[in-house]
Amino acid sequence: MELSQLRTLREVAETLNFTRAAERLGLTQSAVSHQIKSLEVELGEPLFVRAKRGVLLSEGGRAALEHSIRILDEVEALRVRLPGAEGTPSGRVRAAAATQAFVHLFAELFESFMKSHPRIELTFRTTVSTDQTVADILNGAAEVGFAALPVYSPSLQVRKLFEDELVLVAGPRHRFSGRTSVSVRDIAAERLVLFERGSSIRRATDAFFHRVGLRPELALESNDTYFVKLMVEHGLGVSLLPAWAVREEVAKGRLVRQAVAGHRLRRSVSMIFLGRMSPPATRAFVDFMLAHREELEAVAHA
Question: Which CATH number among 2.60.120.460, 3.40.190.290, 3.90.1170.20, 3.50.50.60 corresponds to the domain 88-302?
Answer without folding.
Answer: 3.40.190.290
